[in-house]
Design a protein that fits this description.
The structure is a single chain. This protein is mainly alpha-helical. The protein has one domain. Helix 3 runs antiparallel to helix 4.
Length: 434
């Protein structure tokens, strides 16, 4: 009995050390990112910040659609073969090739929509050209980092992962601070934004080439297994792309560039949750993907989701009690948004819970059927659009909150159904979580 308690305490102590060590460095990275964002908010005019927000939405949308389940397939298969450098290298090369093909189609379809949004929000032609070019450059780097980052995650090269993230964050903050002293507008802001992903891509590629067999050929088997996940996930990805950026889309269409800027500025507070997401994605998800014991998976899933929900709820309460200090950080242009701060935090909190569920289940390729998920979300959005004012900041924020609730419930059901199944056979034996 004492031995069992001792082993359990050692496991929790191990988790605590990992989380504190990773979380402290990750906190520094996110603080640097937050400071960079605040400098940008304070030094850009509202029209400039509105265009900056739309450009960021373009990069996010391109990244989601171009992935369409490739990363989930890579994580699911890689969780079984991550120790074999030749097979893992072959899997990585196959995933990169698939992502590049999806990227070409994505750029051709999505980019014109965002150009239209920029025109509608009165962006000059020269500014549009710079924004779109910079967004596409940043997206090209993300194509690589999104795939190669999984190698570091599955192999739990935590210090290397943090070093790469820290280098990118320091570089971006330094460049933004220098630009604010010399000359700074939306064009400079988006161009500087490309440097961080560029540095990450370069460092990741250098390390991965020495970590796996980079010359391993693509294989039809791995392509088939990844595509099986893509076929299930792509419809959901396309739809969640709309859901994830719907706040920016709707306020861009029905509101004004001033309202777009306000949404973008409030969105900076959501970065508080990125520390939590980084810890979950960097430590918890890779271990979850590698674990094959269903009993352990059930416990870990419940612990992680409940923990994130409790933490997120606490932050929402604090933002409702103390909104003024948060708005002071953004500057005087946004002082009128006091009653919208807690709604933004509620939306971010629900998004964090959903993102945690999503990351855990998709790492195992447990995907909700599109025939259920999409109609359910469409009905929710149609109802909310009918009853809320989409030209106001508060209206689109409430829509964002409401749109997460059905998906959180559905993800919980999908996880529960899959966790009831027997443990599947693996290629390399059972994994383990600390």
């Amino acid at each position: 009995m004492n031995d069992r308690l001792s082993q359990r305490n050692l496991k929790w102590l191990g988790w605590g050390r990992i989380l504190v060590g990773f979380g402290s460095v990750q906190m520094v990275i996110q603080v640097l990112g937050f400071l960079t964002g605040i400098l940008i908010v304070r030094h850009l005019t509202k029209p400039d910040y509105a265009w900056f927000t739309i450009a960021n939405a373009l990069v996010a949308t391109l990244g989601m659609i171009a992935d369409s389940g490739v990363s989930s397939g890579l994580s699911s298969v890689g969780g079984q073969i991550w120790q074999d450098s030749v097979r893992f290298g072959s899997l990585i090369r196959t995933a990169l090739a698939l992502r590049r093909k999806l990227a070409v189609v994505t750029v051709l379809v999505v980019t014109p929509v965002f150009i239209w949004l920029l025109i509608k929000n009165q962006a000059p032609a020269a500014t549009i050209a710079v924004l779109v070019a910079a967004a596409l450059a940043g997206f090209s780097f993300q194509l690589t980092t999104g795939i190669l980052g999984i190698v570091i995650s599955l192999r739990q090269e935590i210090h290397r992962m943090q070093g790469i993230g820290l280098a990118a964050a320091v570089l971006r903050l330094t460049l933004v601070a220098l630009a604010c002293l010399i000359f700074f507008d939306v064009r400079v802001a988006v161009v500087i934004g490309v440097f961080g992903p560029g540095v990450q891509s370069w460092l990741l590629r250098r390390w991965v080439k020495t970590s796996v067999d980079w010359n391993a050929p693509e294989t039809a088997d791995y392509r088939k297994r990844i595509l099986a996940v893509v076929k299930k996930q792509a419809p959901l990805t396309l739809f969640f792309c709309l859901q994830g950026q719907i706040v920016v889309w709707l306020i861009s269409i029905f509101g004004s560039n001033e309202r777009v800027a306000e949404i973008g500025a409030l969105g900076r507070f959501a970065m508080i949750f990125t520390v939590v997401s980084s810890v979950v994605n960097g430590i918890v998800v890779p271990r979850f993907a590698r674990t094959q014991d269903r009993n352990l998976l059930r416990r870990r899933y419940g612990q992680v989701v409940a923990g994130i929900a409790l933490l997120a709820g606490s932050l929402v309460v604090l933002s409702a009690i103390f909104p003024r200090p948060l708005l002071w950080v953004l500057g005087g242009r946004y002082a009128n948004l006091e009653d919208a701060v807690w709604i933004m935090m509620l939306s971010a909190a629900l998004g964090a819970v959903f993102a945690t569920q999503h990351a855990l289940t998709y790492s195992k390729a447990w995907i909700a059927p599109a025939i259920i998920s999409i109609p359910m979300e469409l009905v929710t959005l149609v109802i909310l659009i009918q009853v809320l004012d989409m030209s106001t900041v508060r209206g689109v924020l409430w829509l964002s909150c409401g749109s997460f609730i059905p998906q959180i419930g559905l993800n919980m059901i999908i996880a529960r159904l899959n966790l009831r199944k027997d443990s599947p056979p693996t290629e390399t034996g059972p994994g383990s979580c600390p």
